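DM from R.C. (forwarded with permission)

"hey, sorry to bug you on a friday — could you get me a structure for this? deadline for the figure draft is monday and I only need the backbone to look sensible"
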Amino acid sequence: MATRRPPGRSRPRRFLRSAVATLALLLCVAAAAAALWITHRDSTRSAVGSPSPRPSSAAWFPPGPGSARALLNSLTVGRDEHWESYARNAFGPGWAGRGGEPVQSDGCTARDAVLRRDLHEVRMADRDRCMVLSGRLDDPYTGTPLPYNRFKASDLEIDHVVPLGDAWRSGAWDWPADRRERLANDIDNLVVVQKQANRDKGSKSPDRWRPPRHEYWCEYARRWVGVKARYGLHVTPPERDALGEMLDSCPAQ
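My reply, with the result:
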C-alpha cells in the first residue's frame, strides 16, 4: 500500500531553493553595481584628479604658422622697461663649466640637451651619457656648416632665441628667481648657432635683428612667439609688426 506524503512536507525545500536563487541574484546585482562604481571612480580620477601629462616639447613646439599668428595676436603689447637694471645672473648660473648649472629631468644640463638635439653626427662620451664630444652643425642663422669638438675652440654658441635681456625688459624683471631660471634653461628657447651671428644679435628683438638666412625667418618667429606666449611676456609694437612680417615668409599651409 502506497504511503502518502504528509501535506506541507516539500515547502521547506522549495523555500530553500527559492531563497538560494534570490541570494545569488542579489549577489550578481551587487557585483555589477560595484564594477560600475569602480569604473566611474577610476574614469573620474583620470579626468579630474590625474590629468594626462603635457606632451613633450618636440611634439608641439614651435607652434605652427597659423597657431603662431593667433598667439602673436593674443600677446600683450607694451613698452619695454627696466633696461638699466638687467643682469645675467638674475636668470641663474650660465654654462661656464664651473658647476652649479641646473639639470633637466634626465640629469643633464640644458646645454647638453641642446647640443644632442641640434648637432649632426654626434659622438657621445663613453662614461658620461650627457657629454657630447663632437658633431657638426648646419647653422640655422647663416646656413654655414660648422664642426664641433668639445676640446677645441669652437665657432658655435648656444643662443637664447628670446634673449634674456629682452625677456627682462618685457616682464621678467618682475618675476621670482626660479621662474627666470626656468626660462634661461628652457630648451625650446635655445638653439645652437654660429658664434658671430649670436653676438651680432645680442639682446635685440626682431625689429632690430633677424637671422641673415631668410629661410629661417618662419621658424625663428614661431619660436619667439611661442616662448613669449608660454611665459606671458609682452611685445612692443615694432616687435609685433616684425614678427608678423617674418610669419608671412612661412610656406603656405
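R.C.: lifesaver. The chain has a mean pLDDT of 82.
me: no worries. The two ends are 101 Å apart (CA to CA).
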